[in-house]
Design goal:
The protein has 301 residues and is α/β, with parallel strands linked by helices. Strand 4, helix 5 and strand 5 form a beta-alpha-beta unit. Strands 2-1-3-4-5-10 form a 6-stranded parallel β-sheet, sandwiched between helices.
Length: 301
């Protein structure tokens, strides 16, 4: 099977390329990696030529503008990159009869429900920020393109994604802990924003499983098992890393930022073809931590 990945140089894209390369169904040529130089969200009209040149059977759309604060400052750019480019890609794939899996986000939900339950695939999406709105518009545009089309469309929502090459929450919070210790201060971390930290390698393996089983279609919620707060995530990271730092739990409103995150946009995981859930987020992070520490040591921390 010929599988193409958009955003192949990004956090999820590189994990997908690696997971697909190890899969038994991509053949000796392996996956088709589309980086920004191959297909650019700012120039999506080139996708027809790309499809004709590479002839994939399935496309995983991992490319996105995920800078949530940047999206809040430039909502029209967010809409062009995350919605309009997805629409162009989806129409081209649908016209060619290809399967398409669009990667989306928990931020399509407002996180305001008060019953303590996670969001399922059929729950009403109502984003509270420009990033979530642009991703939801992309989902809807893809669904419209595939209405009556022969190929299958899948939406894979995830949350709190982290992994190589770093510059993610674990990387940033470790750097913040270093600064706090150097200054002899406690570390303020948000305690009222809830989610499921999800390791990019685990998400990639879940997507590969869906493709391999021929079960791409529909809406999938793919997250590592378990729920925590930002403060809980930081505390567990420090425990695993053997770092002692005092955490001061604060509300999200403490931080002035361009975007408003949903406070409890927790996803209810959907079953994978194997019937096995994605592993707990604490176990996944333990696998990620050694590589993160090596990278940080190379830059002097």
């Amino acid at each position: 099977m010929r599988v193409a990945v958009t955003g192949a140089a990004g956090r999820l894209g590189r994990a997908l390329v690696a997971a697909l390369a190890d899969s038994p169904y991509t053949g000796p040529g392996g996956p088709i990696a589309w980086t920004r130089s191959t297909w650019d969200l700012d120039d999506p009209g080139t996708i027809g030529a790309r499809l004709r040149a590479d002839r994939p059977e399935t496309v995983v759309h991992a490319a996105a503008w995920t800078d949530v604060d940047g999206c809040a400052r430039e909502p029209e750019l967010a809409r062009r990159r995350n919605a309009e480019a997805t629409a162009v890609l989806a129409r081209a794939c649908a016209d060619s009869g290809l399967d398409l899996l669009v990667v989306s986000t928990n931020e399509v939900f407002d996180g305001a429900r008060t019953d303590g339950q996670p969001y399922g695939p059929d729950d009403l999406a109502s984003p509270v920020n420009a990033y979530g709105a642009s991703k939801l518009d992309g989902e809807r545009a893809a669904a419209a393109a595939y209405s009556g089309a022969p190929g299958r469309l899948g939406i894979a929502r995830t949350s709190w994604l982290y992994g190589p090459p770093g510059n993610d929450f674990p990387d940033k919070i470790l750097a913040a802990a270093d600064r706090a210790r150097d200054a002899g201060e406690g570390l303020r971390v948000v305690a009222d924003e809830w989610g499921s930290p999800t390791y990019s390698a685990d998400l990639a393996e879940a997507i590969v499983e869906l493709i391999g089983d021929g079960d791409v279609g529909g809406v999938h919620h793919l997250v590592n098992e378990g729920v925590t707060t930002r403060a809980g995530w930081a505390r567990e990271l420090f425990r695993q890393a053997g770092i002692e730092v005092t955490i001061e739990e604060v509300p999200a409103s403490t931080w002035q930022r361009a975007s408003t995150p949903p406070l409890r946009a927790v996803l209810r995981p959907t079953p994978l073809p194997s019937g096995e859930p994605m592993r707990p987020w604490t176990e996944a992070m333990a696998d990620y931590l050694p590589g993160l520490r090596r990278r940080r040591s190379m830059v002097g921390r």
